[in-house]
Amino acid sequence: MENTVRSGTEALWAVLGGDPALVDRVEYGGVAGLLPARLPVMDLARATVAVCGLAAVEHARVAGPVRVDDGAVATAFVSERHLRVDGRAPVSFAPLSRFWRAADGWVRTHANYPHHRAALLAALGAADSVEAVAEAIGGRKAVDVESAVYAAGGLAVALRTPGGWAAHAQGREVAARPVLSRERLDEAPPRRRTGPLRVLDLTRVIAGPVATRTLALLGADVLRIDPPGNPELPDQHADTDVGKRTAALDLDRPADRRSFDELLDAADVLVTGYRPGALERYGLERPGLVTARLSAWGDYGPWGGRRGFDSLVQVATGIAVEEGSAGEPGALPAQALDHGTGYLLAAAVLRSLTEQERDGGSRLVRLALAQTGHWLTHGLPRYDPGRYLAESEGPLGRLRHALSPVAYEGGPAGWSRPPGVAGADAPVWATA
Fold this sequence. Notes:
The two termini are 42 Å apart. The chain has helices at residues 2-15, 41-60, 70-76, 79-82, 114-124, 130-138, 142-151, 162-167, 169-175, 207-217, 234-240, 254-266, 310-316, 319-322, 336-359, 369-378; strands at 26-29, 66-69, 99-101, 106-109, 156-158, 180-184, 198-202, 221-226, 245-248, 269-272, 290-295, 363-368, 389-394, 397-402. Helix 11 (234-240) links the parallel strand 8 (221-226) and strand 9 (245-248). It is built from 16 helices and 14 strands. The strands form 4 sheets. The chain has a 7-stranded mixed β-sheet with strand order 6-12-11-10-7-8-9, sandwiched between helices. It has a 3-stranded antiparallel β-sheet with strand order 3-4-5, sandwiched between helices. It has a two-stranded parallel sheet with strand order 1-2.
């Protein structure tokens, strides 16, 4: 297990620009076999948490090891499922956030937020019920539903195979990029910081909030800002806003905008998670600031301005096909693109701070759920049964069979003879 996990950690740490020698400080352990899936989800989870821990000890100048426990990692990657509020379990998905059969395939929608539900219903011309939406989608092609709902400001994605995504214009753009990017924007001098790190949090729905929740754990003063008329869903807030303070500001109101600008002037880190372009008019650049931009699909390509969520990215990129069965789409055992990207984002911020404190410069890091999804499907070792199978000709015809797991240096590579016709051999010992 450790070699597989270490390879993922080494790859991510290299993209983050970290000292390769630090990877030796990671210790893996805990219960095995968690987050089972066809794709290497647990490897992604361990590696993203490992590099976050490495970036944290590097920035804090702590000399001890980084411990990655599978039980803790797997539990954190489904933290929203373990949440209880006065004994009440959270609501993960609203009734209209689900898979639907279209005329030629499947569509997944996301309608947890009221404005997204309203846009979905308006695009479909349907009443607010599962039956009405099922009927409206069932008579249309999947890509037509996708286009119509996005045009109305809602969220719907047609199910694609891995090959279909690889051939898609956005899929090609994603595949051409690394799992994350980091840039130095200018020659601003290193900031002189007194007191805790100040992080201004403009994110929502798991990935960004997980990153800022982690920075809060590590001692940062995290202040989350939401628009007054569109607060975070209560259960999402309870799960991912631990350790933070939260406030409401309408950036289109002059008084609130002045308050926001004052906060940004004094911030060390800005984390944004709204769709690309949504916040540009507010002029968020500041010298010496570390800015982390998170998106669903990336801020490039034909889908660069689209909203998205983990569940939808799984559907578009072919992950839902790989995890499905019996002709029906499936899902990863956790919203691993969200959680993994969150820990990776926190790691990128911490690495940028470490470099900035030494060399100065405003810094920009960019991550996308689709890029993390591509790393999951293409950047990690996967179990390939073909590596452990052999074929041979014999009395039974062409036989494919599993190789023996019993192996040692100088030992046999396989059996000396194929199986014959049952009972056809003479009852005598073979001669030398």
